[in-house]
Amino acid sequence: MRILLLSGLLALASRVLADGLVTxxxxxxxxxxxxxxxxxxxxxxxxxxxxxxxxxxxxxKVANDSSLSPSYRYVQLSRRNKAVARExxxxxxENADTTQNEFFGREVTITDLPPIKQVYEDVRPxxxxxxxxxxxxxxxxxxxxxxxxEYMMNHPKGEKRTTIKAGFKFINANTVxxxxxxxxxxxxxxxxxxxKVSLEVKFDKSEEHPFFNQSVIKMRAEYTDPSMLRERLYLxxxxxxxxxxxxxxxxxxxxxxxxxxxxxxxxxxEETMLMRTVHRGSIKDKTDLGALYKMGHRExxxxxxxxxxxxxxxxxxxxxxxxxxxxxxxxxxIIEFMKDLQDWNPKxxxxxxxxxxxxxxxxxxxxMALEYLAGAWDAFWWNGNNxxxxxxxxxxxxxxxxxxxxxxxxxxxNRLQAEASYKTYxxxxxxxxxxxxxxxxILKNKDINRKFETILSTITxxxxxxxxLEGRMKAYExxxxxxxxxxxxxxxxxxxxxxxxxxxxxFHKSIWKLQSSIARWIRNRSESxxxxxx
Length: 534
Ligand SMILES: *[C@@H]1O[C@H](CO)[C@@H](O)[C@H](O)[C@H]1NC(C)=O
Ligand SMILES: *[C@@H]1O[C@H](CO)[C@@H](O)[C@H](O)[C@H]1NC(C)=O
Ligand SMILES: *[C@@H]1O[C@H](CO)[C@@H](O)[C@H](O)[C@H]1NC(C)=O
What we know:
41% of the residues are buried. This protein has a domain at 2-103: Sandwich (Immunoglobulin-like). The strands form four sheets. It has a seven-stranded mixed β-barrel. Strands 2, 3, 5, 6 and 7 form a five-stranded antiparallel β-sheet that branches. A four-stranded antiparallel β-sheet has the order 17-16-18-19. It is an alpha+beta fold. The protein has 13 helices and 19 strands. The protein is 29% helix and 22% strand. Helix 7 (361-374) crosses helix 10 (446-462) and helix 9 (436-444) crosses helix 10. One 2-acetamido-2-deoxy-beta-D-glucopyranose binds next to loops. One 2-acetamido-2-deoxy-beta-D-glucopyranose is lined by residues 129, 212-213, 281, 284. Pfam families: CotH. Keywords: Capsid protein, Signal, Virion. Residues 1-18 form the signal peptide. This is Spore coat protein H.
């Protein structure tokens, strides 16, 4: 009874509030020092306020005398309260008492993205516990020492990359997060030859409220891809086919109040990501995790090269989480796997059972099917690159975790033929004929090959085709257009590295029209797969 009474009172209280005051909230970076923002309702301006701790979020409560119009827009004011920039559209209040955190000049806060069909079981963590929401674009603001930051950006390739301290603020439609101090540095390898580089943010692990339980996030520049969409789409399809991987979403980044760029924010593959994404919260203590290896720097083919860690170049096989390896032999676990792979005869009539005991075979085959479908040439099959191997102590098998999906959907060259069969996929790659996990399992073992072909056609029919993806691509195109335009307007000419000279025209064309466009690739590849199994 008391509980009922209480909720009744609360409802009454919130109705009074709704009738009384409306809160307007906008993220705004003034074009000049001293400029401020206001909300305009019925041609009347109401000043918005910010503070050192809430910047760049501006807000005000406006009293509703019952005649307040639901239609409004934001205005930037000069120091002398002259309107210097007005939004060119009117917004409509959707909630009686507050707006979401909106962004100045962006009409749409939440995009209605057409969902993608779930082809295999969804293994993502609860969306409610995630910062990665593709339907909206977050804003990040870093406050740094300007000299330190300039040095960091001008020396992206230094052996020891400069790490600097930064204040951090993240704002999306419903969440504001700030941290007094994060570590900030340039990220990536080859991509550091470009003017726009990727960034990394490391959160203090001892922080009471870590950033959505992340300890590291990467801001991927997507600079080799004028559409900035390829990686996003690849992640969407991976999610549809139930392959656990790092999640991501887009963010605009500002540093000291100035535009830095538009990025894909992704979680780094490390301990907290394994707990959240691979184990979906069922492992809570880092010491219960299995061994994790980062493979990359090309040609990490899982070929057995000897019994000791020292037999393996660290650049290609890097232990990230020790798991149950002895401290002085951090490769022991994965070496056992490589030895089994070397010794295994692909004529084995119990191949599926053999590998199911050692590997999440289905997950691996799905990941390989997508590498082929999307032409992910900088990945495992083609180059032995950009993946992790994780020993899952709960299922007691290895899991293949793919990462970095910018070189997909016919990006970066024409070495790929959309019409080519998966049987010849990789023949122009770095590791053709020297990739036993592909050649022995997928190509040479009859049963695993049949399983692979079934997976390949299931994925093609279910999600990897024009009909399933183009609606979502169109929605992304609309969502991203203004952000990409903004990114292209940023002058990076004082930075080292190459300028690719992208344009907004190229953004649109590389989604739909170019010979190498995403849409053409998907159309040709999916049709070719359909013919391969006729
Ligand atoms: C102001 O109050 C009236 C009467 O309750 C309501 O119809 C109107 O939507 C409110 N305006 C805003 C902007 O909330
Ligand atoms: C962080 O992790 C804890 C424990 O696993 C969980 O209860 C909580 O919901 C997570 N918070 C977020 C924001 O993801
Ligand atoms: C797609 O198919 C068309 C028609 O066969 C062909 O002209 C084009 O070169 C193909 N494009 C790609 C990217 O494979």
